Amino acid sequence: MDGHFLFNKTTFSNDTNDAGPPVNPELASKQAAFKLFYDIMTYVILSIGIPGNVLSVAVMFSPRLRKAPFSMYLASLAAADTVFLLTSVGLQIFHDHELIHASDVYCKLTKFLVRSSGYLSAWITTAFTVERYIAVCHPMRRSTLCSMKTTKRVLLGLAVVICSVSCLEFWAQVERNNMCEFRDPETWLNITIYDMAAGRLIPTAAVGVLNTIIATTVFRKKQDRRSLSVAVVETEKRQQQITIVLFTVSTTFFVLTVPQSVVVVYDLASRTMDDIDDFTFFRKQVIAFTLGLMFKLNFAINFILYSLTGRRFREVVVDVLCRGVRPAYEVEEQQMNPVQTAVFANIPGARELSAFDRRRYMTSRTPFRSQVQLDRSTSDEATIHRTSSVNGPDCAAVTKL
């Protein structure tokens, strides 16, 4: 999954001299410049990916989000992405600097972790895209098919199947001259074809089709919101926020992985690596390594996507980073007028809203605000009488606003 098998002519590593000695100084200069660019981008991907994924796991398991099925999907995705970055990028850096020397056990174990984590990332993305498709296009079945119990079963099933399949790496990988290589060219070709089908083409095709349907359905549902109650509209908006986050993640996965898959399939079909000059080979290397960087970026950018598209995610990030400071919306909610809280509690669907949505709804509705302002201009006894007659006997116990 890490892109080093793009060409069978030579193993693609961080060493740009793997294709042989440079023909002329111009080519050597271009190779050195691109190697510097590749190394810098690799460190950037690793430095933003690992902290971002770790923080994503912490946020998804926070009290506000851990009970939602989509949080379990995104936490699992962040964990798989972290393992991929550590094994595919982190260990490769140590190996390039000769801080780690390859052995037979090292090759088999690291390649198993790279392949299984890469497959898990792709199929978890596909799984929560299916979950969003059900939630958006079949909302009546969402509570049954998109429950936390179902999510745990799906994730466990994916982990068992993918790890079982990835055990092929223990047979296919061997160590030769401090390098991890496939046992033979035929093994390389078979696993590459399988990798493209199971780890790239099928997941990206499913994500592309489902996202198209989801986007169309969401756009159509916007036209029907006028006939819904306020509480239901707020719930729909919350679901839409979740859909936007997951749609962005799955679309980014599609955009960053498809180009490399297309190039790999093209090279496998055309066998264009035979009898080409050094400059042509270098250009193909540049394309292959650039697409490889795009592919690895997919495992590091999700935290940024969550932060840009998820309002609740941003709130929880602040809460996690500043646990000693209570979020402002919780303080405001507790300071609200008890009459407002009692009236709002009787609205159908209000219990399904988050604390932030309840606070925003109550503070934005003029009937409540005007009633409170009017009540504050009278005595306590008149206030109790007025709120009792308007809001019912449940509010008669309120002695002071």
UniProtKB/TrEMBL annotation:
UniProt xrefs under PROSITE patterns: G_PROTEIN_RECEP_F1_2
GO molecular function: G protein-coupled receptor activity
Lineage top rank: taxon: Eukaryota
A Pfam family reported for this protein in Swiss-Prot or TrEMBL: 7tm_1
Annotated Gene3D superfamilies: Rhodopsin 7-helix transmembrane proteins (1.20.1070.10)
InterPro entries hit by this protein: GPCR_Rhodpsn (IPR000276), GPCR_Rhodpsn_7TM (IPR017452), Orphan_GPCR1 (IPR052477)
Subcellular location: Cell membrane
Broad class of the protein's primary localization: membrane
Entry keywords, A to Z: Cell membrane, G-protein coupled receptor, Membrane, Receptor, Transducer, Transmembrane, Transmembrane helix
Transmembrane feature ranges: 40-61, 73-94, 114-134, 154-172, 197-219, 244-266, 286-305
Domain G-protein coupled receptors family 1 profile stretches: 52-306
GO cellular component labels: plasma membrane
UniProt membrane topology term: Multi-pass membrane protein
PANTHER family with a match to the protein in the record: G_PROTEIN_RECEP_F1_2 DOMAIN-CONTAINING PROTEIN (PTHR46272), OCTOPAMINE RECEPTOR-LIKE (PTHR46272:SF2)
The name this protein goes by in its record: GPR139 protein
Source species of the chain: Branchiostoma lanceolatum
